[in-house]
Automatic annotation (TrEMBL):
It comes from Parafrankia irregularis. InterPro entries: YjbR/MT2646/Rv2570-like. It comes from the Bacteria. Pfam families: YjbR. This is YjbR protein.
Amino acid sequence: MADADDVRRLAMSLPHVVEIDSDGFDFRVADKGFVWSYPERVPGKPRVIRTDIAVLFVGDEAEKQALLLGEPDRFFTAPGYDGWPVLMVRLAKVTAERLAELVTDAWRMRAPEELVSDLDEASLGQAR
């Protein structure tokens, strides 16, 4: 079971990540968001920042749909994210290891190629 502290720890372990001041969590690489707290919007009510749910980038619409269909207890989307390769993950439904994969993949989707190579080089150094 993962939580907001796991999101923060994992995101900040990646190269060139900046945390933006927010009511929840909001992480960026090269000025592009890759994982943030879910801003839940219910008609007629004020927006609520949910730190038990993370919004993150995925590869493309096909990957998004595969995750939504394959693991509906873990992943969902909302109308404001239609057409975007992002989805929401219920943190209590994933392990820290799975969250690490998701956050790292989201970072890779948003980071410029030269920064991705920094991560790849660091990973190779740790594997030795």
